[in-house]
Amino acid sequence: MLPHERSLVEKWKEEPFAIVGINSDDKEKLKEMVKDGTTTWRNFTNEQADGKISTKWGVTGWPTLFLIDHKGVIRHKNLRGEEMEKALEAMIQQAKADK
Known about the structure:
With about 100 residues, the chain is of the alpha+beta class. It has helices at about 1-10, 25-35, 50-55, 80-95, and strands at about 20-25, 40-45, 65-70, 75. Strands 1-2 form a two-stranded parallel ribbon. Strands 3-4 form a two-stranded antiparallel ribbon.
């Protein structure tokens, strides 16, 4: 998953696109992942599997992916691969059209 996410960040760096990670690992592990370049996007820590963020969002498995549009609306959950990229491309185009 992480190499694919890094490639998306690079591919769409000039577009209205961002990844935000909510990480359930401990803070030190997350710091190391950022330091060594494993994650290249903004991350928040949930600190445990049953933390506040995962509980509020109903996350029960990792990774759980939410695709949220430029208006803050969840459009998709748990898409992967080509299906996810097509959905993201459509969302980016819509964001650009709404500018």
